[in-house]
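Thread title: Can someone regenerate the structure for this chain?

I was given the following input by a collaborator and told the matching structure tokens would be attached. They weren't. Posting the sequence so someone can regenerate them.
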Amino acid sequence: MTIREELEERERIVLSKYATLSSESRGRLREEEQCDIRPVFQRDRDRILHCKSFRRLKDKTQVFLSPEGDHYRTRLTHTLEVSQNARTIAKALQLNEDLVEAIALGHDLGHTPFGHAGERALNEICPLGFEHNVQSLRTVDVLEKDGQGLNLTMEVRDGILNHQTSSMPFTLEGKIVRLSDKIAYIHHDMDDAIRGGILTEEDVPMSIREVIGYSLGERLDHFIHDIVITSFGKNDIMMSEPVEKAMKEIRQFMFERVYTNPSAKSEEGKAEMLMETLYTYYLNHIDLLPKELLDLLDKGEAKERIVCDFVGAMSDRYATSKYEEIFIPKSWHL
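Best answer:
Regenerated them for you:
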């Protein structure tokens, strides 16, 4: 028996009857030989962790564009917080931690530079549309490894695609990540907003604080405990009714006070213009795209899509530097 098979047997003994077992995965897009050490979801996690799009997350905006300070979240630290929340819940519920971690680490790989401003710009200017969850799946299926893709399992791919509010994964582990994503951004975006002087703790409505806590730490702890307690022994991942209601209310509060706040979003118009300008430029200079993307064009993919692939994959820094290189005279550079 290989080490992988021993680990798969351990899953069958230890995990909940509702857990997704590595040995029962629905497989990959392309069949391949099994690893003798790692079960399939651990292998997927490793592939995501070592891919280029994961490394680029360190220089992609979460909410605040070019904040003054070292402690504001990036897309990478957001991803790590989602992963940790999700692993805590999965371990408590005896679900598959490897699967949860792989989905969490991969869920935002297709996010644009400049946060949702970049996503909004590409969605508006590209006639084919642009959604970061769909692009995350395209990243792992098509774009990574110079066009070969990562060939992930169906369970991880499903969790990446369906991590947003409007959809639902087919595994409990995917459902954990879906909720953990919301918990993470509610928690850390409020922390960053307080750090930036946009909010104070006292601004949070008392009707919310009385239900889920009077501090950031209390609320994060309450969310996680509530999911574990409410979901334990059930074939579903859920919150209690009062906590779910409070989460919807605090999300609405964040949209009103932070996500549309002029102080937090004053630079977003510039970011959207930059993204739209780069998109238009590369659409008219398609030959400047990397060879692996031009190969997709030769395979019949729309040029609008591969331009989105290129511009959407950029880090904040790279997008800004390309804009300066193309449109700003060198004599103007400081």
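The domain at 41-332 is CATH 1.10.3210.10 (Hypothetical protein af1432).
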